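ugh ok fine here u go
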Amino acid sequence: MTEEQVQPAASESEEENGELEQPATEEQPAGEVEGMGEIEKEMASLRQQLSSATTKYRALILAAAPEVPEELVKGETPDEVDASFAAAREMVDRVRRQLEAKAAAERVPAGAPARTPPDLSGLSPVEKIAYALSRTSQSP
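structure:
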């Protein structure tokens, strides 16, 4: 195959703007390949911007949901942060439901119990008479 058959044809705008990248050949040393350093710099810059945006996004969703622990939300991209946030929120909801169920099972009604008359079934007849006489002598 000839070199023209292997390489795709470049668009006219790429040729005019000098954006066409030529691979290193025997005639052109690898150090002279133009644009590769620029592309790598641009990729590094874009990676940094993505990292910064992801960090800011993570901080925003954590501020909106303070009940979710920070340690549970991780990721290198916004999609990964979303996925870990959803899993963390589900875990927090599950733990909350379990704690509420446990608290409901152990709940004691507030206030004192209702007043009931004393149980006299365990007293002897003489004790019952003495109790009744003491109550009548105390009333006005």
